[in-house]
User: Fold this.
Amino acid sequence: MGWSAMDRRTVGFLGVGLAVVVLLGVVVSQFASGNPDGLEYVAEQEGFLDTADDHTFAEAPLADYGENLTDNGRLNTAIAGLAGIAVTLLAGYGIFWVARRTGDGGGDRPSAVG
Assistant:
């Protein structure tokens, strides 16, 4: 069974979109600021940063952008970016899958998820 012209266009569009997302998640993330976030900055300025405790998942493989995965910081950031992309896409797919399954199943309204 062959692909229709619309199916090929949709697959091509999704493929290009995925390539852009991976490019942003892996390459552009390498240029993110290494400075502490706003909360850490204020805690440091106010002198109570050293009173902070690690959270429960501080030793998890992707904690702090996976800095403990390998000895290569750029590779760690890329792996963390890919993991974030995968989790986000899976969550989005799951939400739309549930929304499609729980629709009212009738009426003349076009479905938002088809």
Notes: Residues 15-101 form one domain. Residues 73-101 form the longest helix (29 residues).
